[in-house]
From TrEMBL:
<protein>
    <recommendedName>
        <fullName>phosphoribosylglycinamide formyltransferase 1</fullName>
        <ecNumber>2.1.2.2</ecNumber>
    </recommendedName>
</protein>
<keyword id="KW-0808">Transferase</keyword>
<keyword id="KW-0658">Purine biosynthesis</keyword>
<comment type="pathway">
    <text>Purine metabolism; IMP biosynthesis via de novo pathway; N(2)-formyl-N(1)-(5-phospho-D-ribosyl)glycinamide from N(1)-(5-phospho-D-ribosyl)glycinamide (10-formyl THF route): step 1/1.</text>
</comment>
<dbReference type="GO" id="GO:0006189">
    <property type="term" value="P:'de novo' IMP biosynthetic process"/>
</dbReference>
<dbReference type="Pfam" id="PF00551">
    <property type="entry name" value="Formyl_trans_N"/>
</dbReference>
<dbReference type="InterPro" id="IPR036477">
    <property type="entry name" value="Formyl_transf_N_sf"/>
</dbReference>
<dbReference type="InterPro" id="IPR002376">
    <property type="entry name" value="Formyl_transf_N"/>
</dbReference>
<dbReference type="GO" id="GO:0004644">
    <property type="term" value="F:phosphoribosylglycinamide formyltransferase activity"/>
</dbReference>
<dbReference type="GO" id="GO:0005829">
    <property type="term" value="C:cytosol"/>
</dbReference>
<feature type="domain" description="Formyl transferase N-terminal">
    <location>
        <begin position="7"/>
        <end position="178"/>
    </location>
</feature>
Length: 235
């Protein structure tokens, strides 16, 4: 008997730009069961345009949302969460789905935690920016690191251009991590996450990209005079 393919959901709160981009890829779309939102947000309409079912739990508190999400995941036999949720999950759901809630953060954790990791890094004049994929633990942005990407901050480069580079890296790492999970290559030992058979020869991504879809992904950058509002929409 063949092993069941893992089933994923997106949990979203905001624009859903990364979700929208990766849903263009068949290998991602085929493992996405649905999208769950905690409020009305632009991500909902984007998901529906891809034909992905959407459920909104617009409830009064984070505790209520996480309770509803937990029941939803049980009911629909969900294996993993691809998280773009702006609040922190309750202890109950963190324990029940331990090492299965995947967060995508726009900085090289543990540096620049919080809601604007990219902006905080730029404001600090860091010389390297990047992204982190983590399995959430008990403290926000202090999870088990699965994969990271990095790029140099070039003097004089527009903030919009740098943010777009991070956006592309986040899309690529999501595609890659989903592939590793589908191939059953991700192993967790305590706080260490390892990828069986991974390579480490790339200076931009660690572990290195293997997914053909991730490697070839190209996303046109912002116009030269992109607005600050456009930056926020990349969440």
């Amino acid at each position: 008997m063949s092993k069941k393919s893992p089933r994923f959901i997106f949990v979203v709160s905001t624009a859903g730009s990364i979700m929208n981009q990766v849903l263009e890829i068949a290998s991602i779309r085929e493992v996405i069961h649905s999208v769950v939102a905690d409020q009305q947000c632009p991500a909902i309409e984007k998901a529906r345009k891809h034909g992905v079912p959407v459920t909104v739990f617009d409830v009064a508190s984070n505790d209520e949302f996480c309770d509803e999400l937990c029941k939803y995941m049980d009911k629909h036999d969900i294996d993993y969460v691809l998280s773009f949720y702006t609040k922190f999950y309750t202890e109950k759901i963190r324990e029940k789905f331990k090492d299965r809630i995947i967060n995508f953060h726009p900085s090289l954790l543990p540096a620049f935690k919080g809601m604007d990791g990219f902006g905080d890094g730029i404001a600090y004049h860091t010389k390297i920016i990047g992204t982190t994929v983590e399995l959430i633990k008990d403290v926000m942005d202090e999870g088990k690191i699965v994969m990271q990407s990095a790029c140099a901050v070039e003097p004089g480069q527009a903030k919009e251009t740098m943010r777009h580079r991070i956006f592309v890296q986040q899309c690529k790492t999501l595609i890659q991590v989903v592939q590793w999970i589908k191939e059953d290559r991700l192993t967790v030992h305590g706080n260490n996450v390892s990828i069986r058979g991974a390579f480490y020869h790339d200076i931009e991504f660690s572990p290195s990209l293997e997914s053909k879809e991730a490697i070839k992904l190209e996303i046109p950058g912002p116009a030269p005079h992109a607005s600050a509002t456009g930056l926020k929409a990349l969440a």
